[in-house]
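Regression test attached.
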Amino acid sequence: MSLLTRFLQSPPVRVPTLFPPRVGPGDPRIYSFNSERPRIIDDLVLRVVESHGRDEERLLFALNEAANAEVRRLATQRDAEAEVSLDHWRRLLRRLGKMSHVERVEALKKTVRHMGEDIAGNFDVRVFRATRRMVPGVLTAIMAPSELPHEIVRTGWPRVDSLVTAEGPITRLRELARTGTLVLVPTHASNLDSIALGYLLDREGLPPVVYGAGKNLFSNPIISFFMHNLGAYRVDRRVRARLYKDVLKAYSCLMIERGYHSLFFPGGTRSRSGMVETHLKLGLAGTAVEAFARNLTYGVKRPVYMVPATINYALCLEAETLIDDWLKGAGAARYIIEDDEFSSIDRMVAFTKKLVSLRSAAVIRFGEPLDPFGNPIDEEGRSLAPSGKTIDPATYVSRRGIPSVDAARDAGYTRELGEMLPAIYSRETVVMWTQLVAHVLYRHLVAESPGIDLFGRQRRRGEVAMSRERLVAEVGEARDRLRALESAGLARLGPVLRNSAPDEIVAQALSAWRGYHTKVVANEVDPDVVIEDPNLLLYYQNRLVGFAEALAGPDQVAAAREIAGLTASA
Amino acid sequence: MSQEQSTNEPPVAVVGGGRFGWGLADTAARHGRRVILWSRRPQRPATEAIHVTQELGELAAAELIFVAVPSAFVGEVAGRLGEHLDGAHLLVHVSRGLVGDELRPLSAILREVTPCRRIGALGGPVVADALSRGEPGGGIVGTRFPEVRDAVRGALGRSTLRIYSTDDVMGVEVAMTLVGLLSVAVGFARAMGVGPATLAVMGTRGMAEAARIGASFGGRIETFGGLAGFGDLMAAIAGDTRPELGVGARLAGGMSPAEAAREAGAHIEGLAVARRIADHVERAGVQAPLTGLLATLFEGKISAEGMIKALMARRVGEE
């Protein structure tokens, strides 16, 4: 195993190819990625050199900035990468002043190529097909490979199939994927998001997507192997150099341009609080507009469809780390959490076991597709204006009929889209039973601790109890209010919540929390339920902050308002 | 040059035949642009350069379209206009209003009812009469799209009319609205005979309040220190020809808000929006005493003297 691990850890690991796989005409675009890879990197170099290399001052600045940023980073990093690269950057810095423009362009080319090779993913059809055959065991295989044989002996294939549910206009998305390029923009709660989504896309007959994954995820060798060979490209968030960000953008733009269905998390990073994202950066997702416009300038009219989605878990793998991080207010500082549950094998095993025991652990809900300018799409894939007439999306990136690429304009469109998505997320969020029970319990905690600030309240472990009877009653009422919201098109009820009796909802939530989390969330001490871990409770209930006031009865309004106020600290 | 331009450049369109609409049309025409002006009931005859129409569909021939109808009508008119437009049109509104109890900015309304996305708001000390006469001045266009800024400059901006820009659309829209409101207060205070210092205190505190409100909506404080905020207010205090000043003066003379608005012959957004802003900021917990007082005054629930007293009686705190 350790030998295998070491082999897998020397990225990029690829299975040697003697005969390139045959790609059929109906196969997704990504099947031909490996044969296109060198050309994509050539294009990437060309494009970045064209935008940075034309102006002497701009070029010098780009190289200077990149070299300085990299020297700063690598000098503190002091790892294997630093040994290899630090000298290179230092040498470049020393020589930069004396270099001619032509030499600098050469240096830029080399740098961009190097970055591109590091970023660009891989797609091995054989790995993809093999993975597919292993479905529905693949999630377990990724998460707990050592457990797999035992699980199979004991229970047959894990029931991953029923664990992840898909909702939304899936048939339409299948159609649209044939004529245009899908850009998925889901909420982001867990490192499992991309894996769960990837699995679900395949199961639902939707094409695979390429996406940027944080380089830290590649530190888990098994995950690294799968990610790398299933289209993920690597994003090293430690690199601050602007040039690197430009290369990343150019890469993601090229992929969309070439018709690779893509996935971006507009929130940028996992939601630390557990709340549905309200402030979106969009970042790379913004390249969708550019890609659409660029294609038009080449005379290629391939539509780009933005597909919002919410990923909703009854249990979140990293809940404990994430909420701790949020409470520390260190979300920004610890942009990359290196030591969370995701990197610890035994936590993954515990999580997987727990998941398998649940009836339905995750719901992925796709929203209605939009064009990159926020217009809805009709059955034929055409953009619709508010009047209901079809409208040509090309007009948004054209002036006087001529399409153009304009970074400032496209940034404007991207911001507009970023402002539209939160409302869509909110109404497409599928409320899970654990979240609703957490909300009712937390609301009780708030009502019982008036005038205490957030941190004071979070320290009240095991001090506040709620009678089970009252908990069940309030959960029932909150569920009824949620139903009303659902019929108004403002919210969605998830599994368990939809059909179970309130008593059953409470029982299932308490049992879901038991066994996975290292801390006890809430404990049943007849006839009460005692709040043991306000932090985890906060995490799960945070998904509902936007609904707090709508879910409250007259006696609970004050506490609900206080909960609604939590968004201000998000 | 102007001849050449008028043949190459698409016409500029104006929705609304009020004073402001005509001011914009006159300015663009003076710069040699062909203009199409839509009005429900045209008040002025067409000129050689300004074509007047009652068909919204004709405006689709333009690229830049100014929306200069009272905010309450924008949704309806723009919705009908939107049926003829596509993503290539640039929309710029000049309204000093925010719509509904949620106080939605007009840019959001335009975005919702038309397919257009390249939208902007033109604010600052731009006054209808001064535009029509071609007096030197300046304005600010809030937009996220550089081509909107360029188009407004192309249609209106010359050495005599300097058009600045910012991407803080929300800030500009809130500033336009609140300066409209403060302009009524300025007209009122001057007619009451208050001195320069009182006017300065009222203006400065009023602007601080406006900035707080703007920030609570997601606008940037700095926008209020620029042309959209203080710049616009200074023009009001210096006594330009904006109709809000006259309305304020009539209120001070004891006229009811409805009469005062009628006599001014222009739609005064401030009168309608004051109460909604006051209520909204109270819910949001933003301190806005002046807005609250003005709302009460516009409802005729407080006398002119009572207003001045209430203003000066407020507790003094840290700025």
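Expected vs. actual: identical. Residues 56-77 of chain A form the longest helix (22 residues).
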